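Before going further, it is useful to explain how the protein records used in this thesis are read. An example of such a record is reproduced below.

***
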Amino acid sequence: MRRKRTGGKNSAYRREKAIMTASVVLVLAAMTVTGISVYRNHQKSQEEEQHIVDFSKLEEETQSPVAQAQNQSAQNVTGSDKDSGELDYDPYYAQKDKDLSAPAKTGGESGAGAAGEQETGSQPTEEPKDRNIGYAEYRNEAYNSDGSSSELADGELASGGGQANAADTDKKANGTTASQDAADNQDEALAASANIAVQESQLSFGESSKLVWPIAGNVLLNYSMDKTIYFPTLQQYKYNPSIVISAAEGTGVACAADGIVESVYEDAQTGQTVVMRLGGGYELTYGQLQEVTVEEGDYVETGAVIGHVAEPTKYYSVEGSNVYFKLTKDGEAVNPLDYLG
């Protein structure tokens, strides 16, 4: 009777068979890859050998009698081209190099040389009118009509020298004009400052000085810094550091005292406003103006018109058109009615 193989033996047999099969496949794959690599390297070496130039053959060909005869013919052709005047250099500049490098001749030698040239009939070489810019010696040197030379900057042509000099002259002239204008403006500013200083020194407003009314009209709101007064437009009680004078719109406003305009500005409450220095620490403020005729720094005499009455701002719409008139001493408000004559 035959023995039946157990299941364990069959499993081991299958594993061994699979391992052997895989090994054979790997070996065959490795041999295939190796063969392909060797084949490609062989093909590459053959291609490189095809592209290698054999210079030994060229040397043998150049040493042959036929090649030597061809070279001699080419040299003859080149020599004939040079002799025909088709030159790759300028003989004039070669001669000029020789003249520049030659030592200076004495008076006797130069005379003898001139005599020799006259005997042989040769003529002295003239200086070139059109210079070669690429030539180093002539790029930096320009020749005048009398044979003298003048140095030029690198790359500058003699024909452009006059234009460059003219441009430099214009620049210098413009620079001089600008400098002169700046100096004149500075002198004017200094003179104006000195004039203002002199005029301000003449201002001598004090406690005994008097103001003229800037406009004829009734006082709508009195000066009041010790108690509040009622403002109809605002509908509230407030302190008032000025007086508000009733006036018709468009009426001229006069300067109340000699002074210098400190500032001209726009204010939400007082509209277009002018502040003037009176001297002695006193300043006058005019508000609710339009068409102001003065500027900062102006010296204004008493009675001169400084502007006109404007439409009232929204802070004085109920009061109507008016002139805001305020006097201060060292920044503190004082009652202008005490100074109005």
